[in-house]
Amino acid sequence: MALVVRPSRIHAAGVFTTAPIRKGARVVEYSGPRLTAEEANRLYDGAPRTYLYGLEDGKTVIDGEGMGAYLNHSCNPNCEIDEIKNRVWIFALRDIAPGEELLWDYNLYDDEDPAPCCCGSPKCRGTMYSREWMAKMRRKARKKAEKIAAEREVTRTQGEKVKKTKTLDKGAVTSIPKRSVA
Length: 182
Hints:
Elements: E1 3-7, E2 13-17, E3 26-29, E4 34-36, H1 37-44, E5 52-54, E6 60-63, E7 72-73, E8 79-84, E9 87-92, E10 103-104, H2 131-175
């Protein structure tokens, strides 16, 4: 493929084609050293950006190098990723004209750090996380909010019981007849 890396309006550098690419064409391999998820986490803990791609096996991560690692994210991509015989390839989703930036939907998962999207597409979902991951995070946040609300209700109810007890105690104290001192 006739591909070049150059500045991108989406993020830093991107990959652009200098020749037409047909729909379904294999564009470039996402290559690099293979790591375990634990090794990748240890290597890149706190790093502002990574070029990691998690394989479908859930155990292996590619530490991206080369042209494939420079493709940017878009919520309206012109490319997609597919694993074939333990290799990761980027394919054209549609015909791509010379000069276009090659983009794929990262569909990030397994993290809670912000990952805002800057693709500028009318279909932009505002994040590079997958819809499924965002739904999972919304469910998690809702459960957390429900738990906090339940804890507040318990605290409020306990507070009312304490108030009632104090009121009853006061009443009980005032209703006890005073003893006369002889």
